[in-house]
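User: Predict the full complex structure for these chains.
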Amino acid sequence: MLSKGLKRKREEEEEEKEALAVDAWWLDPSHPAVAQAPPAVASSSLFDLSVLKLHHSLRQSEPDLRHLVLVVNTLRRIQASMVPTASLPPVPSVPAAPGMADNLLASSDAALSASMASLLEDLSHIEGLSQAPQPLADEGPPGRPTGGAPPGLGALDLLGPATGCLLDDGLEGLFEDIDTSMYDSELWAPASEGLKPGPEDGPVKEQAPELDEAELDYLMDVLVGTQALERPPGPGR
Amino acid sequence: MIPGIGVLTQNTLWCFSQMKGAIETGVTEADIISTVEFNHTGELLATGDKGGRVVIFQREQESKNQVHRRGEYNVYSTFQSHEPEFDYLKSLEIEEKINKIRWLPQQNAAYFLLSTNDKTVKLWKVSERDKRPEGYNLKDEEGRLRDPATITTLRVPVLRPMDLMVEATPRRVFANAHTYHINSISVNSDYETYMSADDLRINLWNFEITNQSFNIVDIKPANMEELTEVITAAEFHPHHCNTFVYSSSKGTIRLCDMRASALCDRHTKFFEEPEDPSNRSFFSEIISSISDVKFSHSGRYIMTRDYLTVKVWDLNMENRPIETYQVHDYLRSKLCSLYENDCIFDKFECVWNGSDSVIMTGSYNNFFRMFDRNTKRDVTLEASRENSKPRAILKPRKVCVGGKRRKDEISVDSLDFSKKILHTAWHPSENIIAVAATNNLYIFQDKVN
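Assistant: Here is the predicted structure of the two-chain assembly.
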């Protein structure tokens, strides 16, 4: 019932998320919670789960605002714990991509969808920058195949192998045919960020009627971090 | 009222009284009860469900023959309060689920209640008709108009008795005032106004005016990217018509005075307990999110429910609650799983008994808990069909946390998280409680000795 926490090495390359004022109590070995409890650094599976929940929430025609806000705040905490707060160059905030918001998010509040889109972009940008290879997860949530991609590319990971922990059957169906062999950890190294998300185009097209294939491509590119700031919005957005 | 009623003492035994609702194993989503509320006298008990229906039960008069059996609740009226709607502008479906019902105090022969779904509040009048006028001059008995030329005599219509009919009519519809989902409604003690609260705003209404409401709280940030907190519940003070409280997803309660300014964005009092560093986790904020806030009948205290605890606050002390009760602390080590299956977002309600001496709230596995504030005793009871023999005494339940499980205990891992008691109600003056377990309503009474 309970997914096991993961032990991870401290990341060697560091980037700091801009404007995240969360004190790093979990890094203080003298802190009572840290001293007594198991390592409080979030596992990538918890991060992935939270991103999944965020996606799922945003996909609702009218998101439950309380659920959304709580998930986003939790995601920020988890992410902050994954990126130690050493002195790092601030990440430039990625402006909201209105086209992406309109196409991707059917939220009734355009401002909300734009802000959440920009948050997603922020998160994906951070993920793309955090390139240090990580040890494999020994065990993820039930149903997840072992040997998943390293947490540094956790956002892509969530769009990769189907996981039993997915909350939404629709999402599960969406990804079950995706060939993820190219995302095995041996292949992922800081230099190989130029991998294209090609194999995922086909099956995703068939099983995601609610999203344009082009929009999904764009989302995936952004999450991978290869195209976030390079590719201008497509025509009509 | 018998002395001692309303106090949970060592000698209070709770008995099964009635169960309402279908018994079949499959549950229709629409039948799931979403709110339960006694009226101010306890004579009526209303439930709302996900299908938008309201069912009102009325307590039967106690008969002289059965002194030891208190009146039972029977169906008094059933009506469709809200229908599913489609917002064409935003291309959204609006759920018909009844989020809250609040009764107005009775001022004449009819009963009035407010019911709300995510977007629209309605004022319903429930009235009895037991007489029918007969002997119209211009209409015949079937209601067809008569030709005036055929009328040669006049008669006075008379009222004749008929079978009792209970009618529910919508008297007011308060719509189009909420962009976000309504989570609370609260009738003011002036009986002229009420408030409705959604995730980001609270509006004040006059019962007579449906095309206008005053916005009294607005926490929507100018830039939605800065949104980190939402309103989770709100309630008027029971006696001071200028005072209300609202709770947030960050575990804070704000008390506002409407005399201070028209827009009550600046609170008069701010209640927050500092976080316990030894209990800190990634889920700290989620479990601190307040799911319900209730004034005591006296108006001196407020009670809040978050995921694991119930807290009682003194209005005069803002920095911490005066009492904290653990509802199901054994779930603290399971938060990751509960986050995974979304149970951590469940919104439990809490209620006071009539004398403010006992508080009650629900849990999982159809368990519900009562805490006696004076004796500090607590009890866990279960709403289940197995305990549904008339006047069967409920046996206290216990959850085994670790180690050896005793015969009657249930282990944490065996708890059924799909059976959650989110909604309960306590009779205003007697030890009668109503507990909603999915699609069934259980009524328990204390044993009359």
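Chain A has a mean pLDDT of 53.
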